[in-house]
Amino acid sequence: MSSLEALLRPPVELYSAATTACAGTIALTMPWALQCPTPVGLGIATAAFGFAYWRGKQGYEVLRYTMGLKKYKITSIAPHKIPNSRERLYLGDGFLWTQKHTQRLMDARSAAGQKFLEGGKLSTLTGKALRAMLKRLRRAAIATALVNALVVPRWWNPLSETPDLGGSTLLHGVEPKEIAVSLNQKLRSGHMLVIGTTRVGKTRLMELLVTQDIRDGKVVIVLDPKGDRDLMLRVYAEAARAGRLDQFYLFHLGFPEISARYNGIGNFARVTEIANRTTNALPASGNSAAFKEFSWRFVNLVAQAQVALGMVPTYQSILSDITNIEPLFVRYARHALSECGAPNWKFEVDKAIAELESKKQPSFTVEKSLQSREPEVIALIHVASTLKVPGAKLNGVQNPVLQGMCTAVRYDRTFFEKIIASLGPFLEKLITGDVGKMISPDYFDPTDQRPVFDWMQVIRQGGIVYVGLDALSDPVVSSAVGNSMLADLVSVGGKIYKTGIDPHNPNGDIVMADVALHADEVNELMGPEFIPMVNKLGGSGFKIHAYTQTIPDIEARLGDSAKAQQVLGNFNHVVMLRVKLPETAEFFCKQLPKAEVTTLMAVSGVSDTAGDEEGTHFKSNNQDRVNTQQVEMLTVADVMELPQGQAFALLEGNRLYKIRMPLPDSAANDPFVPASLREIGEKMRQRYEFGASENWAESANADWGDVVLSQPIGVEGDNNAVGQAA
User: pLDDT tens for residues 501-519?
Assistant: First the structure.
């Protein structure tokens, strides 16, 4: 134990407090026993009670500290009671970790401190027997209320029933006085990284942050690769509670029937982004790199042609034109020829078609690879390469897209199919079944009433979007759609940075967005587009919150340790829950300064001086030596033994906080969640077996009534059902 602060010891102050209180009681009630008049006894009693209160308070602090080291602290909080502030983002209850707490933790783990943390055998056996008896009494209805009162979870109650959260109770018990730990809203553009192994509270922390962002009126985007039931229901419930259901979009690949629709390649700043998003998921290692580059070039040509013709690119239209390029080529070639300025291009095309359809040999050479093509295709290629354009030095239409498509059409069909062998099957996965109608929407289908959204639209209307990617069922499609969404967001963020969300502002002001992006299992979504997202989108008003399990997950996804470090270096705020890999814990601990702690060493000795003439037979010496040493503020082992629902957080310039997150009440029985959506949540629970997702403590659920959802999520009219429930 430290000589500077002696909290881990018996509460000896309570003995003197009790003795003084007894003396004060005697002086107050029986002053004659102290041989003093009543006024004097009253004065003595006042002084005695004051001293007893002072000493009792000191003893209480020691006792509370010792008991707090043995028990977990758990708080269950209703969503509408979560602290909310426009200036601060609430993270949980905790304290600022300093050298004092490192000292206390070292003292508690010492051999001398263990005896105060371990109860005696008699008290342990007695406690077990009493708890067993209370469990039997709880079965009797008449004794249930009494038993519940006896097991109330308080630090001073030895019979309290608290769930085992794992880890060490010492990490939070070293500070009995908690504060509300929060982050300055102005600093959130520095982005936040949350790391923790499975079932330790990452998603529950996300619920806490998302709830506050929805109430603050921010644009909220939640990307959930695995599809957590409670998270989906929480986002919906909070949108309804905040009166923002008309701004809410639910996109879930696992439940197309209630999902909104999204075109991942329909919104772009540059046409080349379409090819980037379409081919990002293709393998790029070894020999596959050449095939990916060719696929990119071909998709880029098709996309440019579609955009020039006024089409909105979708995965369906890209695959259709890749599989059969001739119709698109004919339409674009005629479009390009009409814009080249040559007045006789139609005559030349018709002339060439007539020569090809006649049985005579045409006046121009037809390449062998084109002999299987339609006469119109051959004629358009011939005219595009030989037409005399006014003002041009060379014959032929100098249109790079047209020339590129001519080259693509010249490829032999079998050779071309081999070149795009990986692209075709990949696109087929994206457009097959009901999922294909979600991510390749038909804008002209009057029977499909599901809304279609894009990110700029969502940001301008202040929307809320929940994205469930169903990664457990189809990781390939999930990854492709997730990467496409992130790439789309980067493009939109670039536009906002240049012109704001209102480029026609009457005052000429550039209005930035206020977007809170929460990406669970972010390693499943990472790609080349994620680096510029965390590196540059802070200036556009984006606040990115990334949740992952380990650092190697990010490295494996990006395929490069340097790129992973580049991503990690852009997160100014780090929340570290329990992890199992030492390398991940080291990433956090290496950012902390050293701490100076003290150790107390007892030295005693004796020397025999019987031969001295002074008559002294021996001399003894006892010393208490206080030494100081530099130690790690936190060790890897400390991070690896965090209880569930607790974390260390580096905020606002490496300020180290120890926090425990309040457990939100389950959203499954929230009055703002309609019955039909609860049924979807129950199906999610059965499909993914996440019924107890991070259920590390029991939460109190009220008995709410059912609400009927009359229309699909995102369709106008949801507010009626919710209004009736409220």
Answer: 887 777 777 788 899 999 9
630 DSSP β-pair partners: 596
pLDDT at 708: 33
Instruction: Indicate yes or no: pTM above 0.85.
Output: no
In a shared domain, residues 602 and 580? no
In a domain, 144, yes or no: no
- Same domain (yes/no): 341, 421: yes
Residues 6+ positions from 194 with CB-CB distance below 8 Å: 202, 205, 206, 545, 546, 547, 548, 574, 575, 577
pLDDT in tens, 299-335: 999 999 999 999 999 999 999 998 888 999 999 999 9
Q: Which two tokens stand for residue 551?
A: 């650092």
Lowest model confidence (mean pLDDT) among 416-430, 601-615, 698-712 = 698-712
CATH for 524: 3.40.50.300
Query: CA–CA separation, 192 vs 513, rounded Å?
Result: 18
Three-state SS letters, 86-152: CCEEEEEEEEECCHHHHHHHHHHHCHHHHHHHCCCHHHHHHHHHHHHHHHHHHCCHHHHHHHHHHCC
Helices (H), 527-643: 530-536, 551-558, 561-568, 582-589, 636-640
> What average pLDDT does range 28-41 have in this prediction?
89
Residue pointed to by tokens 């019955």: 675
Give the C-alpha separation, 410 to 367, whole Å. Answer: 8
Q: Looking at the structure, do residues 465 and 530 belong to the same domain, yes or no?
A: yes
Beta-ladder partners of 180: 93
List, in order, residues 6 or more apart from 153 with CB less than 8 Å away: 74, 160, 161, 162
Handedness of CA 322, 327, 328, 329 (dihedral sign): positive
- Domain stops at, among 605, 632, 659: 632
Element (H, E) at 655: strand 655-660
Mean pLDDT, the chain, as a whole number? Answer: 84
Out of 40-44, 121-125, 361-365, 430-434, least confident range: 121-125
Measured distance CA(698)–CA(163) in Å, rounded: 8
CA distances from 110 to 148, 448, 600 (A): 36, 68, 11
461 and 329 within one domain: no
Residues linked to residue 544 through DSSP beta bridges, in sequence order: 517
The DSSP-derived string for 269-300 is SSTHHHHHHHHTTS--STTHHHHHHHHHHHHH
Tell me the one-letter amino acid at 362.
Answer: P
CA–CA distance from 667 to each of 225, 717, 720 (Å)? 19, 22, 20
The per-residue pLDDT for 716 is: 38
| Helix or strand holding residue 482 (H, E) | helix 475-499
Does the CA dihedral 256-258-264-265 come out positive or negative?
A: positive
**Residue environment code for 260-293, b if the CB has 16+ CB neighbours within 10 A, otherwise e:** bbbbbbbbbeebebbbbbbbbbbeeeeeeeebbe
Residue 525 DSSP symbol: T
- List all residues 6 or more positions away from 200 whose beta carbon is below 8 Å from its beta carbon: 577, 578, 642, 644, 645, 694, 696
Give the pLDDT mean for 13-30.
Answer: 94
Highest-pLDDT range among 38-52, 58-72, 256-270, 617-631: 38-52
**How many domains does the structure of the chain reveal?**
4
Structural domain containing residue 401: 272-430
pLDDT at position 308 is: 93
Amino acid of residue 396: G
